Amino acid sequence: MTDTIEKSTPDRAPSNSPGPLAAGRGRARFLTASGVAVWGAQMGQVAVPLTAVTALHADASAVALLRTALTLPFVVLGLPVGAWLDRVPRRPVMIAADLVRAAALVTVPLASWCHGLTVAQLLAVVTVQGVAGVFFDLAAQSLVKDLAPGALLAPTNARLATLTQSAMIAAPPLAGWAAGLLEPPTVLLAMAAGYLWSAAWLSTVGLREHVVARVSVPRRRLGREITEGLAFVARRPVLRAVLLSGCLVNIGTAGVTTLLPVLTLGELGWSEGELGLFLGAGGIGGLTGALGAVRLARRLGAGRAAVVVGVAVAPLALTLPLLGRPVPAALAAVAWALVMLKIGFDSVLMTTFRQQATPTHLMARVNGTMRVFFTGAVAVGAATAGALAATTGTRTALAVAAAALACAWLPTALSPLRRMTTLTVR
Fold first, then answer.
1. Is-contact 299 305, C-beta < 8 A?
2. pLDDT by residue for the chain (426 residues), tens digit each?
3. Omega before 172 cis (within 30°)?
4. Which residues have CB under 8 Å from 418's CB, separation 6+?
5. How many Cα atoms are found within 13 Å in the side-chain-facing hemisphere of 96?
6. Residue 146: other Cβ atoms inside 10 A
7. What domains lie within the chain, and their CATH numbers?
8. By the 8 A CB rule, do 285 and 337 touch?
9. Burial (CB count within 10 angstroms: exposed 0-12, middle 13-18, buried 19+), residue 369
10. What per-residue confidence (pLDDT) applies to 211?
11. What span, in angstroms and rounded, lies between the C-alpha atoms of 52 and 249?
12. What is the distance between the alpha carbons of residues 324 and 255, in angstroms, rounded to a whole number?
């Protein structure tokens, strides 16, 4: 493989596909719907804990339980949902997930206004949000290739990554500001309206999905289809490299973000605002990387760009355990921004590599497999960081997390991806 990603099974375009103008409108509507959903999810990560604390006086253990309920469904359901989504059209699933999320969120302000809100109800709502999020996210990732075939895929992924990075930067403070202005339960009502808006946009997307043509294929046991997806990832060097790289990134970022507050607020005596500015620099770096990914990949070649950016930037993560002693805060903030730039850059290229290397009939299973491992890597990274900090000290634990980030480019450099010159399958 020296020029393009070799696909094991050719995908045939569905008949009666919309024309270029209609397809362009469909992509724009899909991006609008996805953007609204992403912003809603990011706002919820702040609005839900604020609701628990302000309206229910919940303690730290209850807040942690709410966060677990939001992420655990991806680990538990990622594989079976991915296999199921390879059997059905994905757009109706996304619409249904939006409607379910909106309906669940509406119950929180209603119960709060009636003075009947409980932690148990909030936990149930968050669990519904997590489960619906599994269906929405995996369906969206699997639908992109139908909406943006060939050369359109990488730019579309770049726009999706830009929406995600911008939401990660701006949605949490927006949710905090709105909660102070409207009270947290009311913010959840606004989020519900956003999900309804997302569903409305998705309903206008004109698309004939590849999966519709598979109705004549005999159905097999779900477990066998899950195994087929796992085996496909295990057998493909491209997908193994994407998986290993993503896991290293998630282990490293989870460890760093877990330990930075301990180091900066505790040992270095920073204020919460100073920590926020430091982390915000990383958000800006991630957004910059997503915006420039396609352009740099076209100039240097996709595989070469991934390796060059990794070699040049990823080792800067090793400055983080030296933050304040001896690396100045401003210099460490620049290093963190550049590391996150690399992560934003990779989010576009690795997603595109994964989609191009996967036949459409396996897309949701591969996405589900990746999501399960990536989510598990976050949990492993946070837990390992906490355990190492307790036994060896915060800076040593931070050095281990930083080493994972510094090495995240190695799977790409050691795989056939390094020889890729284009993001387009021929």
1. yes
2. 444 444 444 454 444 455 555 567 778 888 888 888 888 888 887 788 888 888 888 876 787 788 788 888 988 999 999 999 988 888 899 999 999 999 999 999 999 899 899 999 999 999 999 999 999 999 988 888 888 777 788 888 888 888 888 887 888 778 878 877 878 888 888 889 999 999 998 988 876 666 544 444 556 688 889 999 999 999 999 999 999 999 999 999 988 988 888 888 888 888 877 887 888 888 899 999 999 998 998 888 888 899 999 999 999 999 999 998 889 999 999 999 999 999 999 999 998 888 888 888 898 999 999 999 998 998 888 888 888 998 999 999 999 999 999 999 999 999 988 887 776 544
3. no
4. 303, 304, 306, 307, 412
5. 9
6. 24
7. 20-214 (1.20.1250.20), 226-419 (1.20.1250.20)
8. yes
9. buried
10. 52
11. 31
12. 18
Q: Which residues contact 103 (CB under 8 A, 6 or more apart)?
A: 192
Cβ–Cβ < 8 Å for 238, 357: yes
Q: What HEC string does the chain produce?
A: CCCCCCCCCCCCCCCCCCCHHHHHHHHHHHHHHHHHHHHHHHHHHHHHHHHHHHHHCCCHHHHHHHHHHHHHHHHHHHHHHHHHHCCCCCHHHHHHHHHHHHHHHHHHHHHHHCCCCCHHHHHHHHHHHHHHHHHHHHHHHHHHHHHCCHHHHHHHHHHHHHHHHHHHHHHHHHHHHHHHHHCHHHHHHHHHHHHHHHHHHHHCCCCCCHHHHHCCCCCCCHHHHHHHHHHHHHHCHHHHHHHHHHHHHHHHHHHHHHHHHHHHHHHCCCCHHHHHHHHHHHHHHHHHHHHHHHHHHHHHCHHHHHHHHHHHHHHHHHHHHHECCCECHHHHHHHHHHHHHHHHHHHHHHHHHHHHCCCHHHHHHHHHHHHHHHHHHHHHHHHHHHHHHHHHCHHHHHHHHHHHHHCCCHHHHCCHHHHCCCCCCC
Name residues whose C-beta falls within 8 Å of residue 282's C-beta, 6 or more positions apart in sequence: 336, 337, 339, 340
- Residue of 181, 161, 179 whose CA lies nearest to 169: 161
| CB 123 within 8 Å of CB 66 | yes
b vs e for 12-28, b when ≥16 Cβ sit within 10 Å of the residue's Cβ? Answer: eeeeeeeeeeebeebbe
